[in-house]
Design goal:
Distance between the termini: 32 Å
CATH topology of one domain: Transferase(Phosphotransferase), domain 1
Helix content: 40-55%
Strand order of the largest sheet: 1-2-3-4-6-5
CATH superfamily of one domain: Transferase(Phosphotransferase) domain 1
Order of helices and strands: EEEEHEEEHHEEHHHHHHEEHHHHHHHHH
Largest sheet: 6 strands, antiparallel
CATH class of one domain: Mainly Alpha
Shape: globular
CATH architecture of one domain: Orthogonal Bundle
Length: about 475
């Protein structure tokens, strides 16, 4: 079967998700040699094709306005009506969707939920500061990435009130996901940042109780969101304290004016219910989260302006940030292409954490792995392989071979062996990894397919006689 290539550049590797307007695929960018996500308008969607193309461009423009580690970056957005239609190319996020986590875990620990909520507040605070309202906060649009950060996806129905970007949706059309929609969305009026806060309240309720506050048909949901009071979370789960219960009920207020002032206020209140301290928040069966003690909420625009006026008197970020803040800052350097600076940041953090003994071992491993990945980007493959092989040996003393962190290191080791033309060793590592991934997730899982493609590269390469 011939490969599907979009824009003479992006090779489709497999599906990620489908929505009302289009499909999202995992793809390989042959020009920059990296994996990406590509969103393509679904063929045959009702409505004028020119209008759909315009809406898609608006989505790309809104996405491009956003600049936060919790929102995937847009790399490209094109209209190729003759061949591929409208498509948008974005950063590929590796991790677990909140919908998948809920399906497996049901209701979630209070500390973990509060920490995830603070991360989400950081993203919403950034979007709301530049007048972008998401309008579709729900588990399917939230991911916990492998680095412990949280990502908010799919700004396809987002609006920027009072701006040219606000005219995205056909007049009179109700948009959103009914279970999470605010009353004003059903009334199709007065969309503000507090609209997202209502949906966020529904989400918190679902995470803590195991089900959303309202269920039923479309008509029943509309009636409930407009007129019914939800059962207080604390009456269903007594270990939820009064302050958290009060916050959720305020978020679910029918009138926007009765909800909290903004995501920044919600974040501060949720921090009271999230464990304090650097590092990662870990629970069995759940992905690790970076403790959101310093990272989550960027300064407001007024504070940023004041800081610029003060000039260089303020201390450097490295002196201010906690461990999770420094990890996120290093990741940001990496994503911005400042690889050497990111390498130093990861190395310094790993060295400092190593002084704490075994209690910080996981964080040390993660920093060292990220440092090795920096070396790969700097074409220091041999040293990166040596460092990752050491990490893999140490990790396997503690974790099974199918641990997500171990799987990641195994993949990098196998690829680096191939790059260094140690083909037989690479084949052994990647074959075992592929078997483990197929057993765990099936042959069509994106990671299994990616490793299979690496094995194909080895087979195509002439072997020494």
């Amino acid at each position: 079967m011939p490969k599907r290539v979009i824009g003479q550049r992006y090779e489709i590797r497999g599906p990620i998700k489908s929505g009302g307007m289009g499909h999202v695929w995992r793809a390989y960018d042959a020009v920059l040699e990296r994996d990406v996500a590509i969103k393509v308008i679904r063929q045959g969607v009702a409505g004028d094709s020119d209008e759909l193309a315009q809406r898609f461009r608006h989505e790309a423009l809104i996405h491009a306005k956003l600049d936060h580690y919790g929102i995937p970056k847009v790399h490209d957005a094109l209209l190729d009506a003759a061949a591929d239609g409208v498509y948008m190319v974005m950063e590929l996020v590796q991790g677990e969707s909140l919908a998948e986590i809920i399906k497996v875990s049901g209701r979630l620990p209070i500390h973990w939920t509060a920490s995830l909520g603070v991360h989400l507040c950081a993203i919403l605070h950034h979007a709301h500061e530049i007048s972008v309202v998401h309008r579709d906060i729900k588990p399917d649009n939230i991911m916990v990435a492998f680095d412990g950060t949280v990502r908010l996806l799919d700004f396809g129905i987002a609006v920027a009130p009072d701006t040219e970007l606000g005219r995205l949706t056909t007049t009179g059309k109700m948009v959103g996901t009914y279970i999470y929609m605010a009353p004003e969305q059903f009334e199709q009026s007065n969309i503000t940042p507090r609209t997202d806060l209502y949906s966020f309240g529904v989400l918190l309720y679902q995470l803590l109780i195991g089900k959303p506050p309202f269920e039923g048909s479309t008509v029943q949901l509309m009636r409930h969101h407009l007129f019914s009071s939800p059962v207080a979370p604390r009456s269903l789960r007594p270990e939820i304290d009064a302050q958290l219960d009060e916050l959720i009920m305020e978020l679910l207020a029918k009138s926007p004016g009765e909800r909290p002032e903004g995501a920044l206020e919600v974040s501060r209140r949720l921090l009271n219910h999230s464990p304090i301290g650097p590092g990662y928040l870990s629970y069995p069966g759940l992905p690790d989260l970076i403790h959101p003690t310093t990272v989550p909420v960027p300064p407001s625009r007024s504070n940023r302006i004041a800081a610029r006026k003060r000039g260089s008197e303020s201390p450097s970020a490295a002196n201010i940030l906690s461990v999770p803040g420094r990890f996120a800052a290093a990741l940001r350097l990496f994503k911005d292409g400042r690889i050497r600076e990111a390498l130093v940041a990861y190395q310094e953090l790993a060295e400092e954490l190593g002084k704490s003994g075994t209690e910080r071992a996981v964080e040390v491993h993660k920093c060292r792995i990220r440092a090795a990945i920096c070396r790969i980007k700097l074409n220091q493959e041999k040293q990166a392989l040596e460092e990752l092989q050491i990490e893999l040996k140490e990790l396997l003393l503690v974790y099974p071979a199918t641990n997500p962190l171990v799987l990641e290191v195994r993949k990098y080791v196998g690829i680096l062996l191939r790059v260094l033309q140690r083909f037989s060793e690479s084949a052994v590592v990647l074959t075992e990894l592929h078997s483990d991934l197929v057993r765990a997730h099936g042959p069509d899982h994106e990671e299994a397919l990616a490793v299979r493609n690496e094995l194909i590269k080895i087979r195509r390469h002439p072997q020494p006689g």
